Amino acid sequence: MARHTPYIITNEADLNAYESTIDLALCGVDLAYEHETRYAQQGAHDPTPTHYFILEELFKHCPLDKNTHLLDVGCSTGRVLAYYLRAGHPGQATGVELDPELAAIAQAWTARYPNLHVLQGNALDLDLSAYTIFYLFNPFSPGMLQRFIESIELQVSGTCTVIHTSDNGDTWHYVGRPGWTEVASGAIEHFRNARGYRVKVFDHPQHYTVWRYDGNA
């Protein structure tokens, strides 16, 4: 995205404003919705929209073809689905969101796109066997994450890819588990604008890992 982004982006507010224009053009609604979750007792974390430039970095590590079915866990208003649409990726993309109000926003704008879907509910209640890629931007508590990983292991009989991003990476939840292999890892703290200058967008680096799970291992 950086090579197409005006060089006037000099701070996070500029970046957010630019990405809002992308949201409005694709979806007809600004997807940059942040607030404290009403579902903390159920283990949910505050919804946070992922920047488009971060999604470009993360998804370059994933195999994407007509058989892809992405699940965005804790999709909020659907920024990841908007990225998927904008990038022209083949296959299907589904978001699941616990908060009914946020899910309704995502369901409204995705309704006109046959390859995008939004479910309202708890990700732990889903049948995960049909999905090939799981995207997690720190969606819930460590206990729920552990249960979600176990659900993947129980339900995915082939292979899948998991993209996990958070302040600390949460890598210890995956390391040493049978069938899991780290594909890529890194940290993102800055956005690089069209002139090559770094713009700080996070107070703390966001660490990511991309994992491949082989259910046959």
Q: Please, could you describe this protein's structure?
A:
The protein has 217 residues and is α/β, with parallel strands linked by helices. It has one domain (2-214): Vaccinia Virus protein VP39 (Rossmann fold). It has 5 helices and 9 strands; from the N terminus they run ααβαβαββαβββββ. A hairpin with a 5-residue loop joins β7 (190-192) and β8 (198-200). It is globular. The mean pLDDT is 87.
Instruction: Please report the number of helical segments.
Output: 5
Major sheet: arrangement of strands:
3-2-1-4-5-9-6
CATH arch. level architecture:
3-Layer(aba) Sandwich
The overall number of domains is: 1
- Give a quick account of the main beta sheet: strands, pairing sense, barrel closure: 7 strands, mixed
